[in-house]
């Protein structure tokens, strides 16, 4: 389709915006040809047939996050609002994670990470003022006990989403380095967690 337009609503101002593009890419077919591509390593989820799983969220590196409302058939843009502590904590969103309780968490490059509350369309932020070593959080991985492991610019963080307890790990605890990177975590089917650094 040439000359496509996406319509979305700004979460703060409630203004309607139009994004225009040259084309919309549609993937069709009966059998996905994704085996052997290791899409999971790049953070792309696939189902048991190998089809790419999509959801309603889209992270951006400059414009916050977008969420598609299926009922209203429109995009809503969530951005940082300096005057609102319940807004997205930072506009550079690095990853979006859905936990085992179907809660949505977003990581940012400068505002820590946050939990999205769909009923109020607000966020609860966690950052260096809550005990994080810094405010750059690349990814979140959940272990079998429901604890989150966060890769950051200053080591590894274990976060308990129930108690909100934060524990940091650095080279002093045996890490090879404190710097992690984008797409730097992976959980395999057996539940093993792998964390990478440059």
Describe this structure in words.
With 198 residues, the chain is an all-beta fold. Helices cover 0% and strands 39% of the residues. It has no helices and 15 strands. The strands form four sheets. Strands 2-1-5-4-3 form a five-stranded mixed beta sheet, with no helix packed on it. Strands 6-7-8-9 form a four-stranded antiparallel beta sheet, with no helix packed on it. Strands 10-11-12-13 form a four-stranded antiparallel beta sheet, with no helix packed on it. A hairpin with a 5-residue loop joins β6 and β7. It is globular. The model has no long low-confidence stretch (mean pLDDT 86).
State the secondary-structure class.
mainly beta
Helix-strand topology string: EEEEEEEEEEEEEEE
Coarse shape: globular
Major beta sheet, strand line-up = 2-1-5-4-3
Sheet-strand content, in percent, reads 35-45%
Question: In total, how many beta strands?
Answer: 15
Low-confidence stretches: none
Mean of residue pLDDT?
Answer: 86
Largest sheet: 5 strands, mixed
CA-atom Rg in angstroms: 18 Å
Indicate the percent of residues in helices: under 10%
Span between N and C termini? 40 Å
Number of helices: 0
SSE topology:
Elements: E1 2-10, E2 16-23, E3 57-59, E4 65-69, E5 74-78, E6 93-98, E7 104-108, E8 113-117, E9 122-126, E10 137-142, E11 148-152, E12 155-159, E13 166-169, E14 185-187, E15 193-195
Parallel strand pairs: 1-5
Antiparallel strand pairs: 1-2, 3-4, 4-5, 6-7, 7-8, 8-9, 10-11, 11-12, 12-13, 14-15
């Amino acid at each position: 389709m040439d000359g496509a337009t996406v319509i979305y609503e700004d979460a703060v101002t409630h203004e309607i915006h139009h994004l225009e593009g040259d084309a919309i890419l549609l993937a069709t077919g009966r059998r996905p040809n994704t085996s052997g591509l290791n899409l999971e390593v790049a953070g792309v989820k696939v189902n048991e047939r190998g089809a790419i799983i999509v959801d309603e969220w889209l992270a951006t590196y400059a414009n916050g996050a977008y969420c598609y409302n299926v009922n209203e058939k429109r995009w809503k843009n969530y951005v940082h609002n300096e005057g609102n502590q319940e807004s997205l904590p930072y506009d550079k969103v690095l990853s979006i994670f859905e936990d085992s309780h179907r809660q949505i968490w977003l990581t940012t490059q400068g505002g820590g990470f946050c939990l999205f509350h769909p009923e109020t369309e607000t966020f609860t932020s966690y950052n260096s003022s809550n005990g994080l070593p810094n405010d750059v959080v690349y990814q979140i991985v959940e272990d079998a006990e429901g604890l989150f492991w966060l890769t950051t610019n200053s080591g590894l963080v274990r976060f308990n989403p129930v108690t909100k307890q934060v524990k940091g790990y650095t080279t002093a605890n045996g890490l090879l380095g404190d710097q992690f990177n984008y797409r730097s975590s992976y959980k395999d089917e057996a539940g093993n967690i792998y964390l990478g650094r440059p």
